[in-house]
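Researcher: Next entry in the queue.
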Amino acid sequence: MAQKDRSNEPNLTPLFCLVGGGLLGAAWQRNQTEEAKKSRAEREYPGKVEEVRDEIEHVLDSWEPDENNATEDDFVADLAEHVRAEAGYVVEVNPSTREWRPDILVEGVLALEIKVNPSKSERDRCIGQCAGYSRLWATWIVLIDASPSAEEDLYKLLVDKGLEHIDLSNIWAD
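Model: Structure for this entry, 174 residues:
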């Protein structure tokens, strides 16, 4: 069988190398961007952060806020006690740190910010607070009795600010 003359066909190897390199570069850049969004706790203690997040998800699901809670401080104290009782974690309420003061700090790796039916200005303020917390700790916003539209607004604000890595839960205190 005679071989076909391929001398006039283009050599696509450089093109494949260029495209492959571009794809690898894009994947590397995306990985670097995601890594930069991680808190110091997530970079230094990834296993512990994942364990605490998983447990707090279950703790929030089982939390039934006390019907006598009237203020944000009441809800913070109630949730902190529930986390201690259910998970046995070290829980600090309004810990004094150099720069930030989250409502609850769990095991020194997860900041919980509690907002009770927040107004638009409180949601905007919450974004700033959580942006700061998320530099040091994994961060979770716990909304209490927020309307679905307020929850959606806060979620969109997080995404718009590149903070979609911050968890968000809405708890009904009925």
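Model: The longest strand covers residues 110-116.
Researcher: Noted, moving on.
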